[in-house]
């Protein structure tokens, strides 16, 4: 019996190798090992690995893209969809009639640090790097979060209105960081992108003179009460920001009510923060921000509340969204990924969606290397890629419509960051050598961002038996299906996918791998 089973497994493997052929024309990863569990891919002005535009084969065939701890990086393959089941123990059945949320998009943040690092490279390498994120040969980022003024990933502390008592914001002015660095890079990114970028603005701190503690850092909130002059000026600050960026042809899809309001509310925070309770945020939106936006030249800008960890849900959403005066101005709830492992997605994201299905959930910040026990840049760490993929799959399976990485580009120390809060990033520059390294997390993002265009709709997937594989499936606007599968560890050795509209796809995800399968349905 055992021999027979071994033989059939061997046969199945042989069939697979024969069937999945590598497609030509893609640039392979120039791998470099820095002594961690996997590798980075090195890029310069003339060379960078890429899978091109990833168009799908005709009906009856499927595309596969595989990344793994063993060193595959979006390795492309193609195979035949079969009319008969392979008899695999585990079958993932696509249910196209079970429809869930539609995707908005994926991306990262244009922090001061990101801009400084991109501009530390020669012009040719800068272009190569921007193409990697934004062009159709790259990984298709469409969402860019733009910090309003300084945050920890800046080299100095500033806001756009640092003149004391400037309630009318007469002296509001963008910073050199915006004018000389972030704005030109955003314009270049937009020029490379086949789709309009969805820009998202978040502020870390209000000017010191508007705040109870008179400083950008530490524990402090706006002086006075919602409806009062500080709260009104702070709402106008957002409008002035939108106006100034519009002068450079950059318009915003959305803004958040402020980065991590719990930080400045509850702790003596070491970097820029502005405290809000959910009650104060509710009233500020209802009395100040909402009406100001409605009366501005940008009344269709989306407003996302929270912009903080999901452990605050569903409480935060209940306080704000149960109030019709605030809720009328709000479109979504923004979540950060820190401490996700201690808060089940079902009771935070799932419950919030069930209570307020008309408000979307959106991931606005995540990064590796933030945990004090495992801090900073680690070149080539595959487990960080798995953490990204795990979190994205969990989020989208609980109604999140987009996921935004934090700094798009950092240096080898994980900065610059004025308070030394160094973290990791999917792209790390080595300015001395004029190259950049694409980390395993870059490919984690790619497995989603390159394939799940705006409007892709999540559909049902049912496993024939219990499995440790993590997965999520989508139907894109052209009817093609995208299935993303993460294998962090499992006892299963092979599986097949059944899409009743096209047939059976046998496959085997290697140990510690991330897989995107895609096929046409007509
Ligand atoms: C860029 O990298 C490729 C591949 O490693 C190498 O062949 C080429 O010489 C490099 N070009 C420059 C300008 O360093
Ligand atoms: C603020 O702007 C006014 C003119 O609008 C100017 O006279 C003044 O010097 C500015 N103050 C500062 C501190 O920049
Ligand atoms: C502004 O952007 C639009 C499309 O994104 C483009 O058609 C137009 O030429 C741009 N205008 C300027 C002044 O750059
Ligand atoms: C807050 O932290 C700063 C240093 O980050 C320290 O100088 C200050 O004394 C602290 N304030 C309080 C009230 O603990
Ligand atoms: C997933 O990885 C494990 C090792 O971590 C491996 O034993 C298993 O075969 C893989 N699962 C699938 C479905 O390929």
From TrEMBL:
<feature type="domain" description="Glycosyl hydrolase family 30 TIM-barrel">
    <location>
        <begin position="103"/>
        <end position="452"/>
    </location>
</feature>
<dbReference type="GO" id="GO:0006914">
    <property type="term" value="P:autophagy"/>
</dbReference>
<dbReference type="GO" id="GO:0008203">
    <property type="term" value="P:cholesterol metabolic process"/>
</dbReference>
<dbReference type="GO" id="GO:0042176">
    <property type="term" value="P:regulation of protein catabolic process"/>
</dbReference>
<dbReference type="GO" id="GO:0046527">
    <property type="term" value="F:glucosyltransferase activity"/>
</dbReference>
<dbReference type="InterPro" id="IPR033452">
    <property type="entry name" value="GH30_C"/>
</dbReference>
<comment type="pathway">
    <text>Lipid metabolism.</text>
</comment>
<dbReference type="InterPro" id="IPR001139">
    <property type="entry name" value="Glyco_hydro_30"/>
</dbReference>
<feature type="signal peptide">
    <location>
        <begin position="1"/>
        <end position="25"/>
    </location>
</feature>
<dbReference type="GO" id="GO:0005765">
    <property type="term" value="C:lysosomal membrane"/>
</dbReference>
<dbReference type="GO" id="GO:0006680">
    <property type="term" value="P:glucosylceramide catabolic process"/>
</dbReference>
<keyword id="KW-0732">Signal</keyword>
<comment type="pathway">
    <text>Sphingolipid metabolism.</text>
</comment>
<dbReference type="GO" id="GO:0004348">
    <property type="term" value="F:glucosylceramidase activity"/>
</dbReference>
<feature type="domain" description="Glycosyl hydrolase family 30 beta sandwich">
    <location>
        <begin position="455"/>
        <end position="517"/>
    </location>
</feature>
<dbReference type="GO" id="GO:0010605">
    <property type="term" value="P:negative regulation of macromolecule metabolic process"/>
</dbReference>
<dbReference type="GO" id="GO:0007040">
    <property type="term" value="P:lysosome organization"/>
</dbReference>
<keyword id="KW-0746">Sphingolipid metabolism</keyword>
<dbReference type="InterPro" id="IPR017853">
    <property type="entry name" value="GH"/>
</dbReference>
<dbReference type="GO" id="GO:0004336">
    <property type="term" value="F:galactosylceramidase activity"/>
</dbReference>
<dbReference type="Pfam" id="PF02055">
    <property type="entry name" value="Glyco_hydro_30"/>
</dbReference>
<dbReference type="GO" id="GO:0005102">
    <property type="term" value="F:signaling receptor binding"/>
</dbReference>
<comment type="similarity">
    <text>Belongs to the glycosyl hydrolase 30 family.</text>
</comment>
<dbReference type="InterPro" id="IPR033453">
    <property type="entry name" value="Glyco_hydro_30_TIM-barrel"/>
</dbReference>
<dbReference type="GO" id="GO:0050295">
    <property type="term" value="F:steryl-beta-glucosidase activity"/>
</dbReference>
<keyword id="KW-0378">Hydrolase</keyword>
<dbReference type="GO" id="GO:0030163">
    <property type="term" value="P:protein catabolic process"/>
</dbReference>
<keyword id="KW-0326">Glycosidase</keyword>
<dbReference type="GO" id="GO:0042391">
    <property type="term" value="P:regulation of membrane potential"/>
</dbReference>
<dbReference type="GO" id="GO:0016241">
    <property type="term" value="P:regulation of macroautophagy"/>
</dbReference>
<dbReference type="GO" id="GO:0032006">
    <property type="term" value="P:regulation of TOR signaling"/>
</dbReference>
<keyword id="KW-0443">Lipid metabolism</keyword>
<protein>
    <recommendedName>
        <fullName>Glucosylceramidase</fullName>
        <ecNumber>3.2.1.45</ecNumber>
    </recommendedName>
</protein>
<dbReference type="Pfam" id="PF17189">
    <property type="entry name" value="Glyco_hydro_30C"/>
</dbReference>
């Amino acid at each position: 019996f055992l021999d027979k089973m071994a033989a059939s497994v061997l046969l199945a493997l042989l069939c697979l190798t024969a069937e999945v052929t590598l497609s030509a024309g893609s640039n392979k990863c120039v791998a470099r090992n820095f002594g961690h569990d996997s590798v980075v891919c090195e890029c310069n002005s003339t060379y960078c690995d890429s899978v091109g535009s990833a168009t799908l084969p005709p009906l009856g065939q499927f595309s596969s893209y595989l990344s793994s701890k063993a060193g595959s990086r979006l390795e492309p393959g193609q195979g035949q969809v079969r009319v008969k089941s392979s008899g695999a123990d585990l079958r993932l059945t696509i249910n196209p009639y079970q429809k869930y949320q539609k995707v908005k998009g994926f991306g990262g943040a244009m922090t001061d640090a990101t801009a400084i690092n991109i501009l530390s490279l020669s012009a040719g390498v800068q272009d190569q790097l921007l193409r990697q994120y934004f062009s159709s040969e790259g990984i298709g980022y469409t969402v860019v979060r733009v910090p309003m003024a300084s945050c920890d990933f800046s080299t100095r502390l500033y806001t756009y209105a640092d003149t004391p008592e400037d309630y009318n914001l007469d002296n509001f002015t963008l910073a050199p960081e915006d004018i000389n660095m972030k704005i030109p890079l955003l314009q270049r990114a937009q020029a490379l992108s086949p789709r309009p970028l969805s820009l998202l603005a978040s502020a870390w701190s209000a000017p010191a003179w508007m705040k109870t503690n008179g400083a950008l850092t530490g524990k402090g909130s706006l002086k006075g009460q919602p409806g009062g002059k500080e709260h009104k000026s702070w709402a106008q600050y957002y409008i002035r920001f939108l106006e100034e960026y519009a002068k450079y042809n950059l318009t915003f899809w959305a803004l958040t009510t402020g980065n991590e309001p719990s930080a400045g509310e509850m702790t003596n925070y070491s970097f820029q923060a502005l405290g809000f309770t959910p009650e104060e945020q509710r009233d500020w939106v209802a009395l100040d921000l909402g009406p100001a936006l409605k009366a501005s030249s940008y009344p269709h800008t989306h407003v996302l509340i929270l912009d903080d960890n999901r452990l605050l849900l569903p409480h935060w959403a209940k306080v704000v969204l149960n109030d019709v005066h605030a809720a009328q101005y709000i479109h979504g709830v923004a979540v950060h990924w820190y401490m996700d492992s201690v808060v089940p997605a079902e009771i935070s994201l799932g419950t919030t969606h069930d209570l307020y299905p008309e408000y979307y959930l959106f991931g606005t910040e995540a990064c590796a290397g933030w945990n004090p026990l495992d801090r900073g840049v680690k070149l080539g760490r595959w487990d960080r890629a798995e953490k990204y993929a795990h979190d994205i799959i969990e989020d989208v399976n609980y109604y999140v419509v987009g996921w935004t990485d934090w700094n798009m580009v950092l240096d080898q120390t994980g900065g610059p960051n004025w308070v030394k809060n160094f973290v990791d990033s999917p792209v790390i520059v080595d300015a001395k050598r004029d190259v950049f390294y694409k980390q395993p997390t870059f490919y984690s993002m790619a497995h989603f961002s390159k394939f799940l265009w705006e409007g892709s709709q999540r559909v049902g997937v049912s496993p024939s038996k219990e499995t440790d594989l993590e997965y999520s499936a989508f139907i894109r606007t052209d009817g093609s299906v995208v299935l993303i599968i993460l294998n962090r560890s499992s006892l299963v050795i092979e599986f097949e996918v059944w899409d009743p509209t096209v047939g059976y796809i046998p496959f085997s995800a290697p140990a510690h791998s991330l897989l995107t399968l895609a096929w046409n349905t007509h």
